[in-house]
Write a structure and sequence with these properties.
single chain, five-stranded mixed sheet, globular, 630 residues, Conserved hypothetical protein from pyrococcus furiosus pfu- 392566-001, ParB domain, two-stranded antiparallel ribbon, alpha+beta, 27 helices
């Protein structure tokens, strides 16, 4: 045979030494170091979780000379981590609850002042990342990390911090940083699969090209598909039967190219109603997206794997996000197929309950276009899972924790639904859930993966039941509004309304729109009241030929400058304000537009009727007065 190969395993240190000493060379046709930081971080996250990350392909000639054919990007990233692991230390390694405990210990946040706490949180988080990256450049320094060092750095930043509090702070970060140290040690000891290819050297460029044009790393769901096939569940509840149809749709589309899938027969599957656990979670995810698209989004693809099917089941069993890979084991603890069916039905009932609670925010008509097939989702999947799981856990899960560590050690799932905890908290949930949902969106709480936040809420499931005063809500709203004024420096290019803008518009107008306006086929636009055209003209006359640093820019897309307007009136109006021409009105009076849509009067917008502004200070003052008042 012209070509042959064998599989070996290399320790990271051995492979790095072989490449650095040129015992394994890098051929000319390699593409160089092309991975950006996001891909490097993704690989390290994959290794952290113990998932397969691919093999390295090495060619060995008849004289024992070796070349790295595939895996340069992975090798470079792993070597970079081993050389300086602190470069990969980020928010994903930080437990936010620990930082809030430090803030409470420092006694600098004026009690429950959320704005000050949020500011302190960011400062301490950034200080921790900086301390790790500057003081722990090597793996040896990470392994010998002294936690008191961070407490000392914290005292330099906050001189009022007493010496007596430094040791408790060091103890607070100890478990979190020990987890980071253990993770580094784990990666150091990981074995890298190496395929050694022997054969004709002239085939190497072709082999390299084919690998890099067609190869793809397995996703965790593809791994689940391969490893969960032996765990089966029979669908016994009529409310879940359509899960089987979603699974059959997937396989039917896969076999359209005359390929045969082993052990698949749609007729037999629909008759026997038995699915392996991967197919069950796949179909459950499709059902969730089909029935609750305003919570989870929708997809026309029959084969796309909806992660929510896996993540929500795992969360409702009160397991951590990383435990989803054990779902095929943990779901078996529920017992019989009938009990598993009942468990899934209870999840659906809980989803329906949350959907009704949030519907006026998530399903409000707004500027949605029904005929486009696209649904705007203004929250993350993890955020909505956290709300559903928090309700489900209170209703059906008895959690037992270790008294010392507060970690969950046991879960008892009782689907009778007579939980005293939920009876006590149900009213508080209804009164505060939407407020907390909005505040978390404004605070961008769910940026990033959301894994640790979801884990925290599952362990403390009353998060959405806490009482939120108007004063607290208003402070969050003010901070967000002023932040937008600082961040959006717009002139010629104007940002589109973001998720927070849409959420707040929906909250306001859902109280104003009549049922007929929400249910009929009339369309609405998000309109800039001080129109983009007028503001651009003002800015152009002021800025002239000034260099970029000297040009006046305004937050044209500020929330204070937008509203919903009936599309027919808005598009007839064109680039003018509501008050520059009345011929655009189509069946509505100007007074009706003011009362139900713009919340303005003519005096509010007279500053837009001048031909131009000569002073940047005057224009900025007039605009900011307008949006702040509104």
């Amino acid at each position: 045979m012209e070509n042959s190969w064998k599989l070996e395993e290399y320790k990271i240190s051995d492979l790095q030494s072989a490449i650095n000493s040129n015992r394994i060379s890098i051929p000319k046709y390699q593409r160089g170091i092309i991975w950006d930081q996001s891909k490097q971080f993704a690989l390290i996250e994959t290794i952290k979780k113990g998932y397969p990350f691919g093999s390295i392909l090495i060619y060995e000639d008849a004289h024992g000379k070796q070349q790295l054919i595939d895996g340069l990007q992975r090798c470079t990233t792993i070597f970079k981590f081993v050389s300086d692991p602190s470069k990969f230390f980020n928010e994903q390694d930080i437990d936010s609850e620990v930082l809030y405990q430090i803030i409470d210990l420092m006694e600098l946040s004026n009690g429950n002042n959320s704005a000050i706490r949020a500011c302190l949180f960011e400062e301490i988080k950034n200080l921790l990342i900086k301390w790790v990256s500057t003081e722990h450049k090597t793996m040896a320094e990470v392994m010998h990390m002294q936690f008191f060092g961070f407490a000392a750095e914290l005292r330099k930043q906050y001189p009022s911090l007493t010496y007596e509090k430094l040791f408790p702070i060091a103890e607070l970060i100890k478990p979190m940083m020990n987890d980071y140290i253990s993770m580094c040690d784990f990666i150091m000891k990981v074995s890298i699969p190496v395929i050694k290819l022997q054969g004709s050297q002239e085939n190497l460029p072709e082999i390299f090209e084919k690998i890099n044009s067609t190869g793809a790393q397995l996703t965790k769901y593809q791994i689940f598909n391969a490893t969960w096939s032996n765990v089966t569940v029979k669908i016994t509840n009529q409310k879940l039967v359509d899960i089987i149809n979603f699974v059959c749709d997937r396989y039917d589309e896969m076999v359209e190219g005359n390929y045969e899938i082993e052990d698949y027969d749609s007729t037999a599957m629909k008759k026997n109603k038995e699915l392996n656990l991967f197919d069950l979670c796949f179909g459950f995810g499709k059902k969730l997206c089909r029935e609750y698209p305003y919570l989870f989004g929708s997809s026309a693809s029959k084969t796309k794997i909806e992660s929510v099917g896996f993540s929500l089941i795992n969360a409702c069993m009160a397991y951590r996000v990383k435990d989803v890979d054990k779902l095929h084991i943990n779901i078996g603890l529920l017992g019989s197929d009938e009990h598993i069916n009942e468990f899934l039905v209870k999840i659906l009932e809980t989803v329906s309950e949350v959907d009704k609670q949030l519907s006026f925010v998530t399903q409000f008509k707004g500027n949605r276009r029904e005929n486009t097939g696209n649904i705007s989702i203004n929250h993350t999947e993890m955020q909505i899972i956290s709300i559903i799981a928090s309700v489900f856990v209170q209703k059906y899960v008895i959690i037992q924790k270790d008294k010392d560590t507060e970690t969950i050690v046991n879960r008892i799932i009782s689907l009778k639904g007579n939980s005293e905890i939920w009876r006590a908290n149900k009213a508080d949930f209804k009164n505060n859930c939407v407020k907390i949902y909005i505040m978390d969106c404004l605070n961008k709480k769910w940026r990033g993966s959301g894994d640790k936040k979801l884990n925290s809420i599952i362990a403390n499931s009353t998060y959405y039941c806490r009482s939120v005063s108007w004063d607290e809500f208003e402070k969050v709203l003010d901070i967000w509004f002023e932040g937008v004024l600082d961040e959006r420096n717009e002139e010629k290019r104007v940002a589109a309304p973001d998720e927070c803008d849409k959420i707040l518009l929906n909250v306001i107008y859902s109280k104003i729109f009549r049922a007929i306006e929400h249910l009929n086929d009339e369309r609405f636009d998000i309109e800039h009241l001080a129109t983009k055209g007028i503001l651009r003209r003002f800015l152009e006359s002021i800025n002239g030929s000034k260099i970029d640093a000297e040009r006046l820019k305004l937050p044209i897309s500020s929330f204070g400058n937008i509203c919903y307007l009936p599309a027919a009136d808005n598009r007839s109006k064109g680039k003018k304000t509501l008050y520059q021409d009345s011929t655009y009105l189509s069946g509505r009076s100007l007074e009706e537009l003011e009362e139900n849509y713009s919340f303005t009067d003519h005096d509010d917008m007279k500053w837009l009727e001048v031909s131009s502004y000569d002073s940047r200070e005057v224009l900025k003052r007039e605009y900011f007065n307008f949006i702040r008042k509104r």
